[in-house]
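Predict both folds.
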Amino acid sequence: MGIDSLRNEIDRIDGQLIKILRRRFNTAAKVRKWKRIKNLPLEDLEREKEIFNYIAVEAKQLGLGTKFITKLFKLIIEESKQQKI
């Protein structure tokens, strides 16, 4: 496999990541809308704790650094809260 095909594979993966993030942001927006309708607080720190515990286990099982994954998901969650979808 040459460098160009490896780079093309990275490009395809990056595109998939972007689409998955869009889906996650859209779903988070639906959760926010549901919470507003039900008059519930938008922030749920207990749920965030569950997410961080889950991703740490998943990352460890896949041999990924939990520090990196935690930082990444903190960014994703913060952006999800800011999205105006």
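Second protein follows, with its predicted structure tokens after the sequence.
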Amino acid sequence: MTQDAIHQAFEIPDTRKALKPTVFWGISEEIPRSLGALLMFLSVAVPLCLWWGVSSVRIGEEALVSPRFLPSPPMVLAAFGSLWERGFLLGDTFASFFRVAA
């Protein structure tokens, strides 16, 4: 029995309201350029901020998550620079790639 049939059988008034058409509900419609740009920016900014926030939370003297498992963005950039300067970046990148691909 459908919801409409139940409403009719028990004389329940239908109080459901449909959402007004917006950019978010149109499946085959184009996303406006400004909204697309905002969504692209947020898709990078929100995870970066969450990463930075979680990696910097401290409980007393200790980090919530060990920097060994979740280094902060500045730590990653420092390691990137160090690997680049010493010439290890490309070799280490290929080694990691082949480990994952194997």
